[in-house]
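User: I'm writing a tutorial on reading structure tokens. Could you give me a worked example: one chain, its sequence, then its tokens, then a sentence or two explaining what the tokens reveal?
Assistant: Sure. Here is the example chain.
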Amino acid sequence: MNRVFHHPVGGPASVSHASFTLNQPNQGKHLARQILGESISFYESQGFHEVDVHAGLDVGGYAWAKYGFLPVDARETQTLLQALRPKLARLSLEPAVRSKVETLLTSQDPQSLWAIADLETPVEVDGRNLSLGKALLLGEWWQGRLDLEDAAVRERFRAYVSEGIQGGPKSAGI
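And here are its predicted structure tokens:
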């Protein structure tokens, strides 16, 4: 994990995660959730207010949304949601599911990204079976932020981290 700590005079302290990767033998063991959970707890204890990422690199566009990161601003939100439209168009979906996703893609609410990431409808993409949310967000690049002062963000982060580590509840979706 490569990180940069920012302590601007008169501004909020933040952390930028430049990269976070696990080698293949360590993937799928919830190690990333444990590391990030402990890292965020440390950041909070030290007075940091934000954690920034550049989501991408394979699963990042999906994973960071699952953790509770949101696009950094309204422009980033709209750019990301618009980028998902071509992927949605290529998927074979029931009309009700497609309509729900289209509604999310036209939303101005950055938390619509969470709802998209949580879409559990199974789809086939390039011979792989994926959840709809994962199919839409894999490979997407976006600037994200975990606002440690936002209760909804903290709650989502904690729920997702505990899901993998402690067998906590899995989010429901269409």
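What the tokens reveal: Residues 166-174 have pLDDT under 50 and may be disordered. The chain has one domain: 2-166.
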